[in-house]
Amino acid sequence: MPGFRYSVASIDSTKANTMQKHFVFAICGCLFLSGVFAQTPEIDGILQQIEQNNRELQAISSYLEGRKLELKSGNNLPDPQFGFFYLPNGDNSTGDYTEFQVSQTIEFPTVYGARGTLIEEQETQLELEYLSRRQEILLRAKGHGLELIYLNKRIATEQERLEQARTVMDQVEELYRREQNGILELNKAKVAWLQDQFKVQQLENERRNVRLLLQNLNGGTPLKIEGSEFSGTLDIADLDVLWQDRLVHDADLVLIRQEEVIAAQALAVSRNKSLPNLTAGYNQQGVPGAIYSGLYAGISLPLWSNRNKVKSARSHLEFQEVNSTRKTQEARTRFEKQVNEYQMMLSRYREYQTTLSGMDSESLLMEAYQLGEISFMDYYRELQFYRDAYDSMIKMEYELFRQQAELLKHKL
């Protein structure tokens, strides 16, 4: 992918560490920024509550603290060694032999520095995994919030239609009493009214279920969204601009590169472990009347223990470099496909808007029916045609905002 791929093997550990920390800081800096991803204050509010109250995020946060401590413990010094000899037996004339020794063995100092940097990179990876899961949970919550706005809009629309259906039914019933139409017309009007009632009840049940899903994400605390209109623009930035922004702020994409950085640092650790281990200590030995003491020093050459480990680490780095490029290219392809589908739906939605905005079909149909120009069935059939078109348009609007949320997940 142009402008993105770099070789981790060519950067030293300090530079790699700084680069990845910039990525993490950039992501953290977006936690409370909405940018062009502005939505209703209600949704912004519930996302903040869910981030604080979500049980899974709380559990992951506690787990990460434990994992970080576990990683740090992997760079501790070995325990010191104490030894004492008392040799009273044997054929000797000088008295009982005693010996005391204390020693400390360490790996070559540069190993601890390289491993410490590796641990920092692994901690960064853990933080990115948390951010990745956080973005997924908040995206799901945002989807539920958008669905509630859509359902609120549908319910408000259906309630208006229910009132209209009741008005029409009363008119048909009055005409029936005047013997200006038959019982079939009256029955059809009643059935239409009952159908509108059922739609409202069905939508209200769907809304209750979505609220339960939000409540679960919020740690069991109920949440409500009363708004019925989406806010914010449906326009999005250019594909390349969005992708570059996503490369920096999408935790999943940064994680791909972080695996490459960790592999590079693991190679540095393996190389440093080819250096000898060092041992230093104090030794005292002797018999009564004659004691010898002094310093003890030694080295342990890793002739066999580190065999093939550097080659293995280098092969793993080469794999991660190729795999990172592959995963990023696949992510770019999926993202471009999503953007293309979004732009196509947006174009279609705006055509619907343009076509339906200038129509006053329901009023014209009602006027024609009241003047006796069309029958009730003709009125109802034509009314449903225009209502279905309007319902398709607002469903498309909801789907667009949901797709936009997915495209801009990295801004959550």
From TrEMBL:
Keywords of this entry: Coiled coil
Gene Ontology MF terms in the entry: efflux transmembrane transporter activity
Species per Swiss-Prot/TrEMBL record: Robiginitalea biformata (strain ATCC BAA-864 / DSM 15991 / KCTC 12146 / HTCC2501)
Protein name: Putative puter membrane protein
Stretches assigned to coiled coil: 155-220
Top-rank taxon, per record: Bacteria
